[in-house]
Amino acid sequence: MKLARRRLARLAAERIEEEDLKDLTCSPLSTSPQISIFKKTGVKSPNCDVTTSRQHIYNKVVTPGKKKAENQKPHQPRNFRELWKTAVKQQILLNRMEKENLKMQAHERVLAEKRLKLDYEDLIPLSPHLVQQWDTILQKGGLSYRRSEIRSCIGQGVQKGRRGEIWSLIVAQSGEKTPVPTDEFASKFSEWGKGYSELRCQLTSHQHAILIDLGRTFPNHGYFSGALGPGQLGMFNLLKSYSILDPEVGYCQGLPFLVGLLLMHLEEEEEAFNLLKFIMFDLQLRNMFKPDMTGLQVAMYQLTRLLSETQPALYKLLDRLEVDPSLYATPWFLTLFAAHFPLGFVSRVLDLIFIEGKSAIIKVGTCLLVQASRSLLSCDSIEEIMDTIKTELPGLPKSSLEDVIKQAASLNVSRQLKTYEVEYSVIQEEISLNETGTGESYKAISTQNNNLKIENKRLLDRVLSLEEELRAEKGKNNQNLEIQKDTVEAQNMKIEAERMKLEAEKLMREAEEIRLEAEKMKKIYENANFNIEREKNEFRNENDDGNNQFVSLKNSNDEVLKNNREYTEQKQSREINGNICKNQVYANITDSSIS
């Protein structure tokens, strides 16, 4: 009995604990859900969704993910075909944009490199008319322009950005003078038949000397200042290739300046190499860079002789102070004035070299000395003269340097320079004979040489007199030339008239064909109109017949309506009369009944 009571008491206590646990875990007013941790319950309450205090805490905490899940709209079916099309179109557009970006970046790199190459100032800005004239010449390829016209334009100025194109145009006009393939030439230039791409892959014994001089060439120019950058690398390739092509010249310290100028104005190394070959072989500047430098000595002699004839006072001063031209002219000629003068002036010198050859260097040097003649004549020593030449001449204003170029372009001293070259050869022969020859043979040769000089002078005088006569005759022949010109123009007009006549006949034939075609179309149009009118008349006749039938039907209908109205009226009159009769009979009957 006691055991039964204890068991009932324990069961009642457990039931009370379960009810308390249910209230603690399910009630929102519970203050400490963690109490359930210490309660051991084996039965899950059916009315409570939270089994642990941790779950209860998690449900009470508000997180962004829960808000997003609460606010998220119900899932809707998506059109994957349209999404796929949109994705493909977007990918194609992205690919196109990427290609365009790559092209733009490459174009920007090319423009940046070109700006870096042409990082120098022109001497003077070009006039818009001259710029337009150059654009026209380059657009037409220069084929319809004479060399004298291009020479005149070069004397006025050249566009910096299109200077390389103009040089290539001059070379194309001159034509490449292919050397005669003799055995001697083949032995001297064994690599002549190879292209630039093959030459640049070979090795040369001058590589070390070339590498040393790369940093000394245009050290202040951005394109060549970087150690083994694109400028120095291109210069190295061209100098190495040329030293392999021309082993007689090999490499000379003045060549990097010429190669650097070509690389500044041309985009491809191969183009610059072809122009370098033209300058060295066709314009014969390679004689200045040979080991014996014969061409340089001839150029300095020509400069001295030309100065003695044009500026005798300056020549006498330089001769009295023993200022040899090798002191100042050697760096001028070997570097094309690039060692001391600004790049704008050096580029203009190279313009003249392309159109006139190596004589342009001598003319520019003479005009420079003439430009500074006042300062030079005031000097009293060789030190003052050299200081003036090295400092004052390169520091001249840009307009003065442009005047020097224009004066050099206007000079016509090719005949004198040729004469000076012959004189130098004769003098060298005399010196060699004086060193080696003795006795009567040397005297005979010396006498013969003097006689040749006298004959040469006489011939020069004769040439001058003939030039005067030619100028006089030229004035007389102007009228004949005008007549010939008018005759040629008349012939051209006649040819043009014949051409226009043929064009007119052709147009007349075409007009006749068009007229016949028009008549044919007119007949077709008339036949079509006739058929249309015929069908129209048939339709009109059918319409008239229909109208007549309609009128007859209408008339018959009117008659029927009239008959109906008459019948209705007769019927109404009969009904009225019948009613009247009925009324009378009814009245009579009524009267009889009353009586």
Summarize the SSE layout with pairings.
Elements lengths: L1 H25 L26 H8 L3 H8 L8 H38 L10 H13 L6 H10 L6 H12 L8 H6 L7 H4 L7 H8 L7 H4 L4 H16 L9 H11 L3 H14 L11 H17 L1 H9 L8 H6 L8 H14 L2 H13 L1 H5 L4 H11 L5 H13 L3 H23 L3 H155 L1
Give me some keywords for this one.
mainly alpha
Quick description:
The protein is mostly helical and 595 residues long. It has helices spanning 2-26, 53-60, 64-71, 80-117, 128-140, 147-156, 163-174, 183-188, 196-199, 207-214, 222-225, 230-245, 255-265, 269-282, 294-310, 312-320, 329-334, 343-356, 359-371, 373-377, 382-392, 398-410, 414-436, 440-594. α6 runs antiparallel to α22 (398-410), α15 (294-310) packs across α23 (414-436) and α18 (343-356) runs parallel beside α22.
